[in-house]
Amino acid sequence: MEVMMKLLCILWLLTNGLLFSSSLAEKQRPPPFGFIKGLEGSRKSNKTRAGISELKHYLERFGYLSYNGSDIHADDDVFDDHLERAIRAYQVNYHLNVTGALDNDTASQMMQPRCGVPDIINGTNTMARHLITTSSHGHGSHGLHIVGHYSFLSGMPKWPPSKARTPTAARAPVARAFQTWASATFFRFYEVSNYASADLKVAFYRGDHGDGSPFDGPGGVIAHAFAPAQGWFHYDADEAYSVGAVSGRLDYQTVALHEIGHLLGLGHSQVANAIMYPFISSGTTKGLNADDIQGIKALYGM
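^ that's the sequence the OP posted. Answer follows.
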């Protein structure tokens, strides 16, 4: 059955006022994850190192570390057992050498701009729990085994059959991103003019530090989306965007493809070439990977 999902792009005018203008002070502000470089080489045997508390907060933000709000070590600079285990879990998720230490490869990975949705949600590692092996027995494919690294958001939320989609977004790159997902699914997206009736809302949002927003200035968290059926997708308005691959800028469509995956119910993937991989590089474009398509079809039983 074809279902219908409505899309409304709002606050688009903020692109001109916010995305491509920034003050000199903002340009000189250090990158949000830049502090990690100074901690490179940290390991449990070091015991204490200034700035380790920031690393703990980074890993807590993306779900790898939890002190349950009461542990006295949550805000100190001690490289404890909890931190070592968190780094090991991170290294497993990103196919890095599992050392438990903040080595060069791990630090470099952590400093990349990324999606703000945590990799581990309420203790569930969304990137590792769906290593699903399937076999196809169709013509010419006997014995073929495909391993999927896609994941679903906690609780496997998804849009009910009463809703559907085909994107005709307010701006072409976002529209193309919705159309790309539509081509891989039975969904159709339509733009609506009535805000209250929209299931999906796309906006540019500027994080004001300390206001509880997920954004942190240029180069950190670049976008964020909510699981079904909340339907919100936010770009970070502090980032520099472009249509297509432009050095130093993020491609609108690539970011939209990733976040729409979350809107539909997918979590993060361990496959670096998948659109649902948490990190998005500037100056590049990216499309759907076989892992992304396997994931969305498995979620909706297509």
